[in-house]
Every structure is written in C-alpha cells, then in structure tokens.
Amino acid sequence: AGASAVACAVAAGMAGKDINEMIDAAMYGAEKGMKLGRQWYGASIIKRTELALKIVRSGKTEMEIWQDLYDYIGAGVAMSESVPTALALVVYYNGNPLKTAYASANMGGDCDTVGAIAGGMAGAFSGSDAFPDQIIKQLSSVNNIDFEKYAQKINKIMRELNKNELEHSQI
C-alpha cells in the first residue's frame, strides 16, 4: 500500500496535478495497494496519513509539527510511518523539494528513507526547475550520476504517455 501510494502521488505530481489531487492520488494508491498487495500487519497508512495531514494543518510552529509527526506518526523505515510523514512534509512545504528534503533530514528517525520518499514526491510535483543548477551539479558530481540524462528520459516517457492519452481520447 505504501509503494502504491508513493507511485500514485509521484504520477500525479508529474502530470501537473495540484497538491490536493496529489494527496487524493496517494490515498487512492494506498487503498488499491491494501486490496491488491500482500497483507501487512501494522498501522493503516491511510489513517496515519489523515492524522499526519491534520498535524501539518494544525497551525503549530514548524518545530512543533516536526516533533508531532515524529511522535505520533513516526519517521521509521516502516511504510506506515515513512509514507504518511513524507506526504505530510510535501504538503506542509507545498511541494518545495529543497525545504521538504531539509525537513526530512533534520526531523530525525530514518531520515534517508523519509527524505527519499518525500523528495521524490516533491520533486515530481515541482519539477526540475525547483532545483538550482549548483545543487544539481553537486549532486551529480558527488553521486556520479548524470541527472540531466535521466530527466530527459523521463520527459520523453511523459511526452509519449501524453501523446497516447490524447490519441485515445479522440477515439
């Protein structure tokens, strides 16, 4: 359910949906994943996501929100913790991938898991223009990855999907 939630949120972000549509897509993915995936004995990703979203919309300070997410939702490796917390951070920072990544890294817990999930969703939502060139160059260099090449491949896939969708809608 967690992987399905993340996949649907990323797809919604890449399709240019707004933050509420991204949340809806994540919830849809979690629901479908729970029905179709392997049974897992743990807290509900949907219920925890609902609580996480209430926390980030509570009007509390940033530090209080981080602490409440950590205390009530969790920031561990379990999908029932990491996915709701990651989605809540994306919502709190309105899809800003840099702020979301910073919060994920500084909140504590399994920050690389939460950060990877939250950063992926926020990056899909905001697009590559949200990242300053200097950061992209540094990440490419440190990780020996040509992010530009992968971004071009993803854009090509998205163009093909959009073209196919347009062709099918005209039938």
Q: Explain this structure to me?
A:
By secondary structure, the chain is mainly alpha-helical. The mean pLDDT is 91. Helix 3 runs parallel beside helix 5. The longest helix has 23 residues, at 147-169. The protein contains 9 helices and no strands. The relative contact order is 0.12.
Residues in helices, as a percent range: over 70%
- For the terminal residues, how far apart are their CA atoms? 33 Å
- The averaged pLDDT comes out at 91
Taken from the alpha-carbon principal axes, the silhouette is globular
Beta percentage is under 5%
Give the strand tally: 0
Q: Decide which structural class fits the backbone.
A: mainly alpha
- The total of helices stands at 9
Q: How large, in whole angstroms, is the Cα Rg?
A: 17 Å
Which stretches are poorly predicted, pLDDT < 50 over at least 5 residues? none
From N to C, what is the helix and strand string? HHHHHHHHH
Largest sheet descriptor = none
Which key features would you list for this structure?
171 residues; mainly alpha
Summarize the structure.
By secondary structure, this protein is mostly helical. The chain is built from 9 helices and no strands.
What topology emerges from the helices and strands here?
Layout: H1 2-14, H2 19-36, H3 45-56, H4 62-73, H5 79-92, H6 97-107, H7 111-126, H8 133-143, H9 147-169
Helix pairs in contact: 1-2, 1-5, 1-7, 3-4, 3-5, 5-6, 5-7, 6-7
